[in-house]
Every structure is written in structure tokens, then in C-alpha cells.
Amino acid sequence: MCGIVGNINKSLVKNNLIEGLKKLEYRGYDSVGIALVNNNKAIDILKSEGKIDDFLSKYKDNKSDGQIGIGHTRWATHGIPSDNNAHPIFDYYKTLAVVHNGIIENYLEIKTYLQSKGYEFVTDTDTECIANLISSYIKDGYSITKAIDFTIEKITGHAAVLILSEDHPSTIYGFKKGFAGSLLIGKSDEQIAIASDFQTLISNSKEYMVLEDGERVVATKDGILISNGKSNVRKKWLPINEDEEIVSKNNYQFFMEKEIHEQSDVFLKNFQGRVDFNKKTVNFANEFNNLDLATIKRIHLIGMGSSYYACMLASYWLEKISKIPVQCSNSSEFRYRNPVIENNTLIVPVSQSGETADTLSASNLARELKVDQICITNTTNSELERITKNSIMMRASSEIGVASTKTFMATIEIFFIIALYLSQINHVNEDLSDIFDELKIIPSYIDNILKNSDKIIKLSNKYSSNNNFLFLGRGQNYPIAMEGALKLKELSYVHAEGYPAGEMKHGPISLIDSNMPVINIVTDGPYLNKMISNIREIQSRKGKIIVLTNCPEKLDSSWYDDIITFDKTDDILSPFLSTVCVQLFAMYLAISRNLDIDRPRNLAKSVTVE
Ligand code: G6P
What we know:
Layout: E1 3-9, H1 14-24, E2 31-37, E3 43-49, H2 52-58, E4 68-74, E5 89-90, E6 96-104, H3 107-116, H4 127-139, H5 144-154, E7 157-165, E8 168-177, E9 184-187, E10 191-195, H6 198-201, E11 207-210, E12 215-220, E13 223-227, E14 232-233, E15 238-239, H7 255-261, H8 263-271, E16 275-276, E17 281-282, E18 298-303, H9 305-322, E19 326-330, H10 331-336, E20 345-351, H11 357-368, E21 372-373, E22 375-377, H12 383-388, E23 391-393, H13 406-425, H14 433-451, H15 454-462, E24 468-473, H16 478-492, E25 495-500, E26 517-522, H17 528-540, E27 544-549, E28 562-565, H18 574-592
Parallel strand pairs: 18-19, 18-20, 20-21, 20-22, 22-23, 24-25, 24-26, 26-27, 27-28
Antiparallel strand pairs: 1-4, 1-10, 2-3, 2-4, 5-6, 6-7, 7-8, 8-12, 9-10, 9-11, 11-15, 12-13, 13-14, 16-17
Bound molecules: 6-O-phosphono-alpha-D-glucopyranose.
6-O-phosphono-alpha-D-glucopyranose (G6P) binds next to helix 9.
């Protein structure tokens, strides 16, 4: 959830640290700070509550700088966002500064132990335990590296940490325990750089290496020493072949707006090399190359947030098209319920960031159980890829808006293509040629919705003062009802619930009155009449009815208050289009409430704590 940077340089590092933190701000943005070793070999800490712009205005006249430093952008776990709780955090003697991503689960026990030894704590963070624990081992006479190794052993939970020490002013120490986001180390002729993600590193490095679970790093301008606590670990520098992606808003007001509008392009990119529309075949051989799919008898999909809803939708498609039984779990539930996994199961973890702690832990469990896995991710060199060994890339390019949009679309498209692929290799005897023909046109249907978004803007304005919404759908549009409600919650801070429409009469119906707008996804297909009955039931209870539909001709205009239409397709493909409608509705409603679209309150794009 937090972003970490470190820099050892021939020139001054403050600007490099800040530039790195700007790139990592998607990981958390409630406070920010840096620590530098100044000319007098003392540590200066500059930190402030708020976003990087707040930090920059607070310190606009500050001249501190140095050739070595660490930095942090925070998503609070322990302790409210404040100047005091912002990282870096000093130890009691103010000779060590620590930045930390993750959660120390036994921090209270450690704090009590250290307090009994006379250590006073001045923040509410669990991070202060790390600083003071290292410090206490040093006071006991151990070297700093031994002190760090003891600390790694003593703490439980997940942590990615960098440390500056006044006694070793030319060195950055660091360690990684469990899954608290990546720590990547890069180098060029001028510098050693450390960052939580690859995109941040490649702006100033030519080669890189990855710190793994249980490893400690000692970085100086002369080189890198990695140890696993018992012995030194020899690692090769890997070349960085990618160029830094330049990400801008173009002419859009918000990144999310741009990202929603990129979806038809993303859709086309994900076809390339995978779908042959002339032959009506799918080729995934290169991506599934380490797996024998013909032996797969069952599929288990795991993810969190929008990725989980993408899995839910995929479970409908995979079963219908490829006839393989599919189960789908929220990663955080999967992890702790001692899952029973039958032989010949394929697990597919989904995570656009490749860093979500719950999904990493779940996937790691699957690795321990020796189950075949292939992940779907948007992040090259992500931790998830390293665990699963096999991956399918989303080809969505960087998504900056914290709430997922184009990566959700890319994920569901990939799942749809996988369903076609499995049907093909398992010789499922169904003619899918019409589906191929329609799938090809989806990008232009997405563009049609975007071109006509005025209607959705008007509706969002109309409903912008409502504080409760219900989203209903059936079949493959039930997960889209869930995703629509999630988008609205994330962006507008409005209470919204998604339900399978059949469930409505088992509880949610009691919420319906003239103040409750209900967004119904009504598509032309096997669920049409059932959805019409639901609408009629809502109307009888004076609920406000908004229909998202591809068959207005089959609905009497007296049955609804408002309507959003999209192109008609085979019903199985309709989620691609209903998705765009719910995304636009949520975004424009948040815009009319004047909210931060790209960085909604309390959220983070990479959730690296469980
Ligand atoms: C956060 C984001 C969501 C995202 C979820 C899962 O909560 O705000 O938009 O769906 O994490 O992220 P992942 O990277 O695993 O897909």
C-alpha cells in the first residue's frame, strides 16, 4: 500500500526521491516523507501529512539535501495520517530512520518489551517497533546487519523496509519479509536506486535485481550485498530492456476518464496474436506454454476487489463455453479456509498490480500445495508472476486511476478468450462462430457508448444527491452489478449494493422506497423476463428505476424512470458493454460531487497489506 524509494548518488538525491515518490503515489497518498544524510553526516527527516504537493509546499524553502536518502508515501495502517505518523520514523536515539511497507502483527508485544527496556514511543505506527528493535540490538553490542537479521526473525507479518543509519552514512540497509510489496534494486553508472515498483526504477537504472522474502540488502555506491540471514546470496543483475512509459492525461480532466476511453484500444490489443477472426480460432499456446491444459478438470479463480468480480464473471463464461467446472474465491477467504483442491485443478490468480497481498498469499499457498497456476496481471516483473511462474499480460498499459477500469475490461476480455481457447482444445462441440463475429465488433460498441455519454452525464447529475443505490443483474450481468456498486462506492463515497436480482425479494426489497434508485441491467436474452418482473416489483414499491439495456423496444417506457442504452449483442457478450455504462455512471456522479476521481479517499491502488 505504501511506496518506498532509496537513492545513493554521485549528485544530490532529494529531487530523485521526490520524483520516485510521485510515481509511487498511487500506492498510498495520506502522507509523505524523506530522510537524507546531510553534509554533517546527520539524518534530516522531512515529512508531512497529505499528498506530495502538500509536502512540497511545506518544504519549499528547505535546503536539506545529500547524496543518500530514502523516501515513503503512506497508506495508513497503524496510526492516523499525520505529520508525526508519516514515515521515515526515527528510533528512540534518532540515529536510525526507517521506511516500511506492510504490517508488523506482533508489534504490541515488541513495543511492550522495548518499553520495559526504557524505549519511549512517539508515534502510533508499528514501524517504530522496527526502528527501536534494530536500535536495541545495536545497543546490546551487535553490528547493524546482525541487528537487522534479529529483527527480521523477531517480527511476524509482512514487511518491506529501508533503513538509514547515522553511524553508516554511506549505506542504505533494507529487508523484505513475506508479501508486503516488491523491493527492487537498480543501478546505473551514477547511482543505486531502490523502489517498490519496476516502472519507478527504470527511469534511472540500467540493470536491476529483486529482493526476495527473507533477504537483507546492504547497498553502498560500491555495490550491493544480499544475505538471507545465514549466508550471502549471489544474484545476477538483470538488464532493463523496457523504456519508461510516459503517462499523461492527454486532453482528459482525469486519468480515469482517459482510461475508460482507452478501453476499445485495450480490447483490440488483447486480441493481437491471440484471436484469429478469419479462422475463428484462439491461440494462447505461447502464454500457457508451461501448462498441460488438456489435463485440467477444474479451475479455481482468485482475486480481490474488481479483480474478484472479473473472476465471478469468468466463472459464468468458462462453465458455459468451455464446460469446465469453475470455482471462484476472494483471495483473503481462500487463503485461510484450508481449501480442498482436487487433482488437475488450475488456479488463476488475478491482480492488475500483481502485488495485492491477499492474492499473493493465496497464490503462494497454491505454490506450496504444488497446484498449477497462471496469473493474469498488468504488471511485468511483478511478485505474482514470480510466484505463479506463468502469466498472461493484460496489455492495458499503466492504469493511474486508483479504482480499476481498463484493467477490469482487459481481465474480462482475457477470460472470455481463455474460455474460447479451452472450448477449442477440449473439442467442445458447439458452434461459436457467431460469437467470434460479435466479439470482433465489441470495441466499436464500446466507442458508441463513449460517444453518447452525454445521457449518462445528465443522469449522474440528476442522481448525484442520492446516498443509496442498488444495482441488480442476473447471470453474467450479476458480477457487473457488483462491479457497478463497487465503482460507485469507491469514487462517490455513496452507499451502493450489488445483488443478483433474484435475491432482491429476500431482503433488499425492504430498502426500496421513493428515495432508492435501483440500477437494473436488463439485456435481451434468457434473463429478460425475469428482470422485467424485478422492475415491476420495484415499481410497485415506488423505487426509482434506472435501466441499462440493449433492448429498449422490449420495455414499456412506463416501467422505468430513466434509461441508458447500449448496442445489442449475443447476451453472453453484454457484460463488456454494461461495464462501460456502470463505470461512466459512477465516474460522472463523483465528478458532479466534486470528488478526487483518480485518488479517492482511503483507497490505494496496490493493497500490499492483508
Ligand atoms: C484496490 C483497488 C481496486 C482493485 C483491488 C485489487 O482495492 O482500489 O481497484 O480492484 O485493489 O487490485 P489488484 O491489483 O489485485 O487487481
